[in-house]
Amino acid sequence: MRLGLTGIRKTAGRAQAGAAQGGRAEPASAGFAFGFLCRFGLAAVAASAGLAGCDSGAPAVAADVGASAQHAPANPLVVASAAQALKVAAREAAPDGGQTRAQVYESVRKMTALGKQLFFDPSLSGSGKLACASCHSPDHGFAPANALSVQLGGNDMHRTGMRAAPTLKYLQAVPAFAEHYHESDDEGDESVDAGPTGGLTWDGRVDRGGDQARIPLLSSFEMGSSPAKVTAAIKAAPYAADFRAAFGEHILDSDDATFKAVLQALETFEQTPGLFYPYSSKYDAYLAGKAQLSRAELHGLQLFNDEKKGNCASCHISQRSRDGAPPQFSDFGLIAIGVPRNRALAVNRDPRFYDLGACGPERTDLKGRAEFCGIFRTPTLRNVALKKSFFHNGIYHSLEEVLHFYAERDTNPGKFYPVVKGKVQKFDDLPKRYWANLNTEPPFDRKPGDQPALDEAEIKDMVAFLNTLTDGYKAGH
Ligand code: HEC
Ligand code: HEC
């Protein structure tokens, strides 16, 4: 539960919220398949199919698509694209010369295949050594395979940024960034302001996968590439012919057009349901009545949900939404929980430097807006057990450490923050003038000497529960 910028928010109903775009495990539904066309940059495909512009007409069409969109989409882009899906369906034979549904699917299929090649191709980087997959390993929920707090990159492969690489799974459900988020699923009360919500990256600074992919490709401490380098790499790649076939014979003549196409293909690949949002964890099987949780796992789940114990589900939603969409284990809210400064990071050698999340320095549009300082987007906890570094600065390396932080941040702060001359430097990564932004709801509602919200045995069971969120569960394991 986030204490919004607008004051205390209603506490009931949040456990129902969060599946903004659904992400229902029914990839074949028209609303679902086409939902991502617009949201994830297939504007070009949608346009060439003779569809209306992706961003247009959302409110007007919301009513007629309600029934077939299957899950009340909170995102206007999704509403728009659901409407378009219907239009496409209604025009199967394409009498007016637009693309048929089959042709649209074929374009998506081609683009997905190309996106996959690009995702794994280190030749797109300046060093020739770094692919998207180097930091986002498919075997680790598309998070890093190693336990470094921040990954190595740049032309010499020795440079580092300030943030841990997140999982790329379940991002389809992240709504576009909004300073004031009103969710349609919140007990039907859209007047509830959930505060800043959504957007990609830890600070929510971009909304679409393509805009996001631009960041690591061009960043001097990540892939350190350029449109020209990317184009040269693709010309020399085994998939050059496929790239031309998908984007046009002359696409590689223009660096800018090629770069745009690359971003679009990556974005499309990241929307492959079976890879990125399979909903195949033990917990999903449990929700579907097809698996039982062990006693420890079940106890962990209870503690996770219990408002007086973990209270985790108030931000990391664990229940299906009212329309039955599976939980995303995030409400996508941006919130400050006072993660300690990671003194191992190169950027933090400068005592004046702070990564303040939404108010900068990586994000620039909310600069100087004090109420946005120190807030980071709540990550999904699906596949979190596959991660080896946790929180935006990668400071912790095990779930036990994270759980201890939640349980004892306020009861025993000296365990997490530096102690100088006997005095605990609490919230050492957030200047004092922003402390009003810090969350103080359970388990963060205590003071030194109080009983921690969770004891050792409870933490153990919660870790057991978090392990049920890993995709790829097979009955009998
Ligand atoms: C050097 C490591 C590295 C490489 C290479 C890299 N990323 Fe990332 N990725 C990160 C980090 C770190 C973040 C978080 C950035 C932030 O919050 O500012 C991130 C964030 C993301 C996100 C947003 C996730 C979220 O939770 O919102 C997406 C999507 C993504 N990367 C896709 C890609 C793609 C596509 C490529 C290849 C073009 C790529 N990444 C290459 C490290 C990397
Ligand atoms: C007030 C909202 C809120 C509550 C309550 C909350 N979290 Fe979080 N959680 C966050 C935010 C925000 C982050 C990212 C913080 C950052 O990196 O600065 C996070 C990060 C995490 C991470 C790290 C994930 C990663 O990919 O690095 C784990 C694990 C986690 N939370 C588990 C829990 C558990 C377990 C509980 C209950 C004990 C809990 N959270 C309660 C908001 C919350």
Automatic annotation (TrEMBL):
<feature type="region of interest" description="Disordered">
    <location>
        <begin position="181"/>
        <end position="207"/>
    </location>
</feature>
<dbReference type="InterPro" id="IPR004852">
    <property type="entry name" value="Di-haem_cyt_c_peroxidsae"/>
</dbReference>
<dbReference type="GO" id="GO:0004130">
    <property type="term" value="F:cytochrome-c peroxidase activity"/>
</dbReference>
<keyword id="KW-0479">Metal-binding</keyword>
<dbReference type="GO" id="GO:0030313">
    <property type="term" value="C:cell envelope"/>
</dbReference>
<dbReference type="GO" id="GO:0009055">
    <property type="term" value="F:electron transfer activity"/>
</dbReference>
<protein>
    <recommendedName>
        <fullName>Cytochrome c domain-containing protein</fullName>
    </recommendedName>
</protein>
<keyword id="KW-0560">Oxidoreductase</keyword>
<dbReference type="InterPro" id="IPR036909">
    <property type="entry name" value="Cyt_c-like_dom_sf"/>
</dbReference>
<dbReference type="GO" id="GO:0020037">
    <property type="term" value="F:heme binding"/>
</dbReference>
<dbReference type="GO" id="GO:0046872">
    <property type="term" value="F:metal ion binding"/>
</dbReference>
<dbReference type="Pfam" id="PF03150">
    <property type="entry name" value="CCP_MauG"/>
</dbReference>
<dbReference type="InterPro" id="IPR051395">
    <property type="entry name" value="Cytochrome_c_Peroxidase/MauG"/>
</dbReference>
<keyword id="KW-0732">Signal</keyword>
<feature type="domain" description="Cytochrome c">
    <location>
        <begin position="295"/>
        <end position="470"/>
    </location>
</feature>
<feature type="domain" description="Cytochrome c">
    <location>
        <begin position="110"/>
        <end position="267"/>
    </location>
</feature>
<keyword id="KW-0408">Iron</keyword>
<keyword id="KW-0349">Heme</keyword>
<dbReference type="InterPro" id="IPR009056">
    <property type="entry name" value="Cyt_c-like_dom"/>
</dbReference>
